Amino acid sequence: MKKTRILIVCLLAGSLAASGQEAEGTRWTLRDCLDYAMENNIQIQRSKVAYTSGLEDTEQARAALFPSLTASVTQGFVNYPSSRVLDNNSYSGNYSLTANWTLFNGGQRRQELKQQKLRNTIDELAVEESANDIRLSLIQAYMQVLYAMESVRINEHTVEVSKAQRDRAVELLAAGSISRVDLAQLESQLSSDEYQLVVSQTTLDNYRLQLKQLLELDITQEIALELPELTEEDILAPLPEKTAVYATSLAVMPEIAGGQLEVDVAELEIKRAKGAYWPTLSLNAGIGTGHLSGTDYTFGTQMWDKFNESVGLTLSIPIFSNRQYKTAYNKAKLARITSELDLRDREKQLLSEVEGVYLDALSAQNQYTSATERLEYATESYRLTEEQFNLGMKNTVELLTEKNNYLTAQQEQLQAKYMSLMSAQLLNVYQDKPIDETL
Predict the structure, then answer these.
(1) Residues 405, 410, 415, 420, Cα dihedral to 10°
(2) I need a labelling partner for 404 at 20 to 30 A (CA). Which of 53, 69, 314, 366 fits?
(3) Does residue 21 have a pLDDT over 60?
(4) Minimal CA–CA distance to 171: which of 157, 161, 183, 187?
(5) What is the four-CA torsion angle of 7, 11, 12, 17, rounded to 10 degrees?
(6) Which backbone phi and psi does 359 adopt, to 5 degrees?
(7) Contact, 316 vs 239, CB < 8 A?
(8) CB 155 within 8 A of CB 193
């Protein structure tokens, strides 16, 4: 028992030291956390890289509309082992400049450029979607840290009260008002409260670690939050209509806009696949020259004599392609159906998320109202019982029973409080509203 008490005291001392270090650090608000994460979170940075990569694909699709130009230089060496030739070695060179321009291919290149532009917008929306995911996770982690901080504060106060009750019990024992059994129960309760304080501090450290990970903070960097001063009006702020929240989220959430654009991309893919049935018309042009050693002509004369210019049109007509074009066309139509189903699935998923958060917010507000009323009664009952215990009118079991009821009521109100605040902030994200600056 003595070793356990020493261990608990050491852990408490470490917790208090950590609290002291935290007090010296820079305080982070919820806005600070969100702003920092938007700039440093790896998931968001990856989405931005994917968006930038897509812009390069668009430039390539645009460049495909213009002619291509190729320069070619060929140098050759030939050995003739026959003894009847004048020169066993021959050197040759060919030089050309060729241009190719696809004039018409059923509009496939135009459709591809339109598709790529839509994909750029989809990638941009994906960056916003990643940012929203981080916002949702950060709000939850931030509220968990605040909840754990207040839980630690409550447990610290509980330990102080338990120590005072234990000390009072020692006086009552000396006066003969209580038995040693009563004192042992209060000492056991003090040990239990000290243990709960250590548990709550560990929980706080774990929640703070989760928040640091979302912020991509280094292990050596500390993060300190400050408990906000909130009124009942802040906790029980009126909620918008659920249907209004859902309608707004459908209009502003990037995953829905992205899903709608995916349907448009699939439509363009159908047109692109249909364009493969059309002939392809290409314009070719080029200039070239060359030279060969072992002749009676000089290098300059050969270069001029072999200089040539060419121009031509090539018409490629698809006749039979082993069903490749028909398969591509049919699969493009199926892809459109899939994209429409994906959009419906996203809408249903969003409805489920919004409704879940809304019900959590509504339930938390009702629970907070009920828990606050219960806490008032539990506080008064505990206060009266403690006064009667100090006067010797109540026994230890009755005191500890009322104390546990009081602590349970405190925790229930605390949970409802931060669940209400968290749900309200999550609803703001789904409506693309700014966060509450009081947090």
Answers:
(1) 120
(2) 366
(3) no
(4) 183
(5) 140
(6) -65, -35
(7) no
(8) yes
Strands 68-79 and 224-225 come out as unpaired
- Assigned token pair, 126: 């994906």
> How far apart are the C-alpha atoms of 270 and 111, rounded to whole Å?
9
**Rounded distance, CA 177 to CA 167, Å?**
14
CA quadruple 20, 26, 32, 36: dihedral sign: negative
pLDDT band at residue 138 under the 50/70/90 scheme: very high
**pLDDT tens by residue, 7-18:** 333 434 344 334
| Of the candidates 419, 425, 429, 427, the residue with the CA atom closest to the CA atom of residue 439 | 425
Residues 235, 238, 242, 244, CA torsion sign: negative
Angle at 42 between CA 40 and CA 44, to 5 degrees: 85
Give the amino acid at 103: L
Q: Are strands 27-28 and 224-225 parallel, antiparallel or unpaired?
A: parallel
Angle among Cα 424, 425, 428 to the nearest 5 degrees reads: 95
Selection from 49, 293, 28 nearest residue 149 by Cα: 28
Whether the CB-CB separation of 158 and 407 falls below 8 Å is answered with yes
CB within 8 Å of 82: residues ≥ 6 apart: 88
pLDDT of 366 over the 90 cut: yes
CB atoms within 10 A of CB 197: 23
Task: State which amino acid sits at residue 104.
Answer: F
Per-residue b or e along 22-57, where b marks 16 or more CB atoms closer than 10 Å to that residue's CB: beeeeebbbeebbebbeeebeebeebeeebeebeee
Return d(Cα 56, Cα 359) in angstroms, integer.
44
